[in-house]
Design a protein that fits this description.
It is a single chain. The chain has seven helices and no strands. It is mainly alpha-helical and about 170 residues long. It is globular and about 50 Å long.
């Protein structure tokens, strides 16, 4: 097994592990701990991008998501003062129902994706080149790019309105 294959399996396993720890954190009930596991997930994804020779996307992944977005998440967590969330107990019925629903979705989704042939015949033509990435983003994928920018604007306005105190 070559080193790139070994690093791929290492980064992929770390991404899945840290992603699972974001949701089901056995170490602490604090949302800050989950946010830190999200940072580790983002860093593992950046490692996968480096293996794909997409260095620009890996750097943007670290700077934008692990830096700016995680600071925003931590700010919101601290602003909301989630001490009541730490005291809440896990209800067995909700846990079992969630696991059954996830299992049922997996039973439906895995064979469907397996039989659909998604990804067959893909031939990526660029390896993280910024000029090619910008051309693809602003020509072929312009509508999804603008939709994401509008969603981010709506989320920012919503966060401002939620954090605003009432004037008397």
């Amino acid at each position: 097994m070559a080193y790139p294959d070994l690093f791929f399996y290492l980064f992929a396993a770390m991404t899945v592990l840290f992603g699972a720890l974001v949701v089901a954190n056995p170490f602490s009930r604090s949302p800050v701990t989950s946010a830190m596991f999200l940072v580790l997930t983002i860093l593992s994804l950046a490692g996968l991008y480096v293996l794909l020779h997409a260095f620009f996307i890996a750097a943007i992944q670290i700077i934008v998501y692990a830096g700016a977005v995680m600071v925003l998440f931590l700010f919101v967590i601290m602003l909301l003062d989630l001490r009541d969330e730490e005291k809440r107990r896990v209800k067995i019925f909700g846990l079992v129902t969630g696991l059954l629903a996830t299992g049922a979705l997996g039973v439906l989704l895995v064979p469907t994706l397996w039989q659909s042939g998604v990804g067959n015949g893909l031939n990526p033509t660029f390896e993280g080149d910024t000029k090619t990435l910008g051309r693809a983003l602003f020509s072929e994928h312009l509508l999804p790019f603008e939709i994401v920018s509008l969603l981010l604007l709506a989320a920012m306005v919503g966060a401002i309105l939620l954090s605003k105190k009432e004037l008397k």
